[in-house]
Specification:
7-stranded mixed β-sheet; RNA-binding; 4 domains; globular; alpha/beta; Gyrase A, domain 2; 654 residues; single chain; Rossmann fold; 3-stranded antiparallel β-sheet
Length: 654
RNA sequence: GCGCCCAUAGCUCAGCUGGAUAGAGCGUCUGACUACGAAUCAGAAGGUCGGCGGUUCGAAUCCGUCUGGGCGUGCCA
């Protein structure tokens, strides 16, 4: 809401500078370091001083006296070496803020462009781990932010069901366990956990004797050929694991619109189509000599990527004729933009408890009337930073095909990995080599079965939350405790996963992750719960209803807002609340969910301080009381909204 | 070798496109619950912003360089 207000101000200053000094300047606003210096600062005189060649302080004074009275402002002041500080008219601002926070947000228009966000993308051969959680929390938060800012968003989850990783688990079942499809189907309990252990046993099996690797090749060949028992086993494993992953992700409030299966990209010959396009554009060529003889390679000599490579070429099709992951991904990316001239078939895969449907791609026998998928205007791929180079090649593929706009509209949402601290490994009884022990952290490795499983972490968090809830509320029913601790656990987890900037490695540590105090999701939830408690007590004791606020507002005397003590305290929180949409824009622009996370925490902090300092229920002065009620209500509404953008719910009590 | 990223308080991190006294959380120490529930709050201690140059009226922020660490650079994904 503060953005609109600022634009009006900037325009007034821009025109004044143009009239008086004949200089066209972009007026920049910033926030003063503390509230005493005003609500908005204009460093404009410094910029003007350069062209006009006069001291900034003097210019600032001229501008302040010359520009006169501005709407919405209480006063202007010159400060420091030449800042112009603006003080808002607090009453007017508060009324605008109330209007803004209580009005409905318009839903995205149906005919608008569609944005595609791809995230999660876990290989369907083992349980999800904490690294995958970071991906899903970031991706899902981005989805929520985009939707809130009015975008129509389609969420895709790519399933690599034909790759090496699934093949390895098949090797495990068939060659290590001697299991048939029927045996595998009978495996009870957490199937993804079973595969987690099996997968690392297969890695050991390969290490015992390199000849064992031939089993992987056999299985891969069977999967590719299709219509055989091995392929059936692979598909069964992948599908069952995907259901496990969906269940895990559902626990943390993450949903998808479409599962895109790599197998379908192959069966429907997406790659062949993309291959033709690349060939006809001479974007790739068949290498006839040298070490890449027999491969189709993309020439990157003219790309800025060339400096990252030893060879200015990237193999797209191997000499045995199979396509690499990059090739498949180019085809997929083309499809996402509606550039491939081909489409999947679709059928329903799963229905979420809220009624929304998850669709899946399929190679044949799809449902008659699926909703439209693909044809995005912009595409975000949430993939960890280690794949930056491959992502660049995928986008480069679009560019060399002449799709300049789509190239520019492809965004790799890159984030750093979650790693394990040596102490965390010790806690999990994971063995480390002497070199690894010396490192600050070690990578998670599904292959080695080294990692913290997502469900285990969620369980731990939930158990701890249960303890805490029960200590504080021994009278709660088991169902209440269950629901509240779920919300608290997920809040803690989701906040933990987004509070770090994305280019920071998270060295995972149970103590930090299981914390409910300080800068945590729980802290923020607690602030909202407190605000709700006040509103609930008001309603119990005085029959207050939230809609009463709109009615008493016109009659309130707002002079309290201008008092040095209380006025300034309230004002600080109110201006902070007004910045949510600005923070959301910033988060999207920089792809930093941590910006929003930090904002929520700061807002909660300010409220907690207010909570201790000022009483609401027992305040005798009517105007004071009403303004405090207004603040509590606006705070509650705004922070709850901000938390929802990170998929964090607010418990009714805690 | 080349490319990308990181280095700020004992620990984990913020610090927006350069701007007004470098901020949080955890940990340590001192205080505050007959309640709008202390999963909280108030206060204290703790920093030559990795080193050295440069640009600028002004640099944690931009440029160069060095050091230390991480990750890429596959006919794996």
């Amino acid at each position: 809401m503060i953005v609109k207000f600022q634009q009006e101000l900037k325009e007034r200053f821009r025109r004044f500078i143009l009239d008086k000094y004949g200089v066209e300047l972009e007026v920049i606003t910033e926030y003063p370091p503390h509230a005493g210096l005003g609500d908005l600062a204009l460093p404009l005189p410094f910029a003007l001083a350069r062209t006009v060649r006069q001291p900034p302080r003097k210019l600032a004074e001229e501008i302040v006296t010359g520009i006169g009275v501005l709407p919405g402002l209480a006063k202007l002041e010159v400060a420091g070496g030449g800042y112009i500080n603006c003080f808002f008219d607090r009453r007017e601002f508060l009324l605008r803020l109330h209007q803004d926070i209580t009005s409905e947000r318009k839903p995205p228009s149906e005919e608008g462009h569609r944005v595609i966000v791809e995230h999660t993308n876990i290989n369907p051969n083992k349980a999800a781990h904490i690294g995958h959680l970071r991906n899903a929390c970031l991706g899902d938060s981005l989805v929520r932010l985009l939707r809130w800012s009015g975008e129509k968003v389609e969420v895709q989850n790519y399933i690599d069901n034909t790759g090496v990783q699934v093949a390895d688990v098949v090797v495990g079942f068939v060659h290590l366990e001697g299991a048939t499809l029927e045996d595998i189907k009978k495996i009870p309990g957490k199937f993804d956990y079973h595969c987690w252990d099996l997968y690392s046993r297969v890695t050991e099996y390969y290490q015992q004797d390199e000849a064992n690797l031939s089993k992987r090749q056999e299985v891969l060949a069977h999967i590719e050929a299709g219509n055989n028992p091995i392929a059936e086993i692979a598909q069964y494993i992948a599908t069952r694991i995907v259901h496990c992953h969906l269940a895990t992700m559902h626990r943390i409030n993450v949903q998808y619109d479409l599962l895109a299966w790599e197998g379908d990209i192959l069966h429907l010959k997406f790659w062949e189509r993309a291959f033709d396009m690349l060939k006809s554009r001479n974007a790739i060529h068949l290498e006839t000599e040298g070490k890449n003889k027999g491969c189709w390679v993309m020439n990157l000599e003219e790309s800025e990527l060339v400096s990252e490579l030893e060879e200015p070429e990237k193999i797209i099709v191997r000499s045995d004729g199979t396509v690499t992951y990059v090739g498949k991904d180019i085809a997929y990316q083309l499809w996402k933009f509606g550039l491939l001239g081909q489409d999947f078939h679709y059928r329903k895969f799963h229905q979420y408890p809220d009624g929304s449907l998850l669709w899946t791609s399929t190679s044949n026998g799809g449902t008659d009337e699926p909703p439209p998928f693909g044809k995005g205007e912009r595409v975000y791929n949430v993939i960890d930073v280690r794949q930056s180079y491959l992502q660049k090649i995928v986008y480069e593929g679009l560019r060399v095909l002449g799709f300049e706009k789509e190239f520019r509209h492809s965004t790799h949402f890159a984030y750093e990995m979650v790693a394990l601290t040596p102490s965390c490994c010790q806690e999990l009884a994971l063995s480390l080599s002497p070199e690894e022990r010396k490192k600050p952290y070690v990578e998670i490795s599904g292959r080695k079965g080294r990692g913290v499983k997502a469900d285990d972490l969620i369980d731990k968090l939930t158990d701890k939350a249960k303890e805490e809830v029960t200590i504080r509320n021994p009278e709660f029913t088991p169902q209440e405790v269950e629901e509240l601790s779920r919300q608290i656990a997920i809040g803690a987890l989701r906040y933990f996963m987004v509070k770090y900037s994305r280019n920071k490695v998270i060295p995972f540590d149970f103590k930090e992750a299981l914390n409910f105090e300080g800068e945590t999701g729980c802290y923020i939830q607690y602030a909202v719960v407190r605000a709700n408690n006040i509103l609930n007590k008001l309603s119990e004791r005085e029959g207050f209803q939230e809609k009463d606020i709109g009615e008493f507002l016109p009659g309130v005397d707002f002079s309290v807002l201008n008092e040095p003590g209380e006025g300034d305290d309230l004002w600080e929180i109110l201006t902070l609340m007004s910045k949510l949409s600005e923070v959301v824009d910033m988060s999207i622009q920089t792809l930093e969910i941590s910006v929003l996370a930090k904002y929520c925490f700061t807002l909660a902090q300010k409220f907690n301080a207010f909570y201790h300092k000022y009483q609401v229920l027992r305040e005798g002065d009517v105007n004071r009381k009403r303004i405090r009620i207004l603040l509590v209500y606006l705070f509650r509404t705004q922070l709850k909204r901000a938390l929802a953008l990170m998929g964090i719910e607010v418990p009714s009590r805690m």
